[in-house]
Prior knowledge:
alpha/beta; TIM Barrel; 3-stranded mixed β-sheet; globular; binds zinc ion
Amino acid sequence: MNLLANPVPWPNGATCAAAFTFDLDAESVLQVERPDDAHEKLFSLSMMRYGPQVAIPRLVRIFREYDMRSTFFVPGWVAERYPDAVKMLADSGHEIGHHGYLHESPNRLSPEDEQYWFDRALDSLRRISGQQIVGYRAPSFDMSLATPGLLNRNGFTYDSSLMGDDVPYVMRDTSGSLLELPTSIILDDWPQFAHVWDLATTNQISTPRRAKELFLSEFDAVAQEGGLWVGVWHPWISGRPARARAMIEMIEHMQKTAKVWFAPLAEIAAHIRTLIEGGTWSPRVDDLPYHAGRLPEWEKTSWQRGKAAE
Ligand SMILES: [Zn+2]
């Protein structure tokens, strides 16, 4: 039986679409979380600088070998520090997407500050990549209620930060409608592999084989019925040799077992827009905000966040 209620007709008879998207964070996460002492943390800095310096050339070679293009979400500061990595990606046909300026969470900023850093990152990404930037992924997925308006006002065609469906859907608020290309925390490499004491992140490190099994289980479940698979990976994590080998095995498995369309998210968004405009497929619409504020039913309680039950 089919699981998807609203399967997508993908181009050229493809039975599913897949994108190995990467967030090229480099050491921005450490800098934003520990602004006063990040510069002294050589161990963690070196682990994350591995992304633009060692992993990106390797990933570019792998994608070239398999004739695939994908999307790399880049904080503006990372593009300024590692312009050669961003140019190498752009020259190889990959899409550069917006990922904040210094990996700042929109929900930890005022709307004015969010707009300032959004604009600053957008300027850098356009200048360094030479691309028109049309896609966004919020740092740490932490989109704010102000973010869709920023994206709509700047001509973005999609967001890929949320997890509310298996197939593309539309988010609608007072600023307009925005296409969401959803992913899942299951397809993020961070919970599988990230182990950074300086960020108080100490996940048990998975083997590449176990992580591959998890990632592919999501693919196999919808690969024959019009599904969408969007991996959220990080070059410094998944670009290391054994994990890169596992990625190659995944690509080969996907090609062997399904008629898969590998494409940058901007091209997937353009296809969806064509379907909607042509009336051949309609997405589900999610209205924002989900809730107006604190729930009225819960207004008068003394409950405090983080307070243990007594
Ligand atoms: Zn990130």
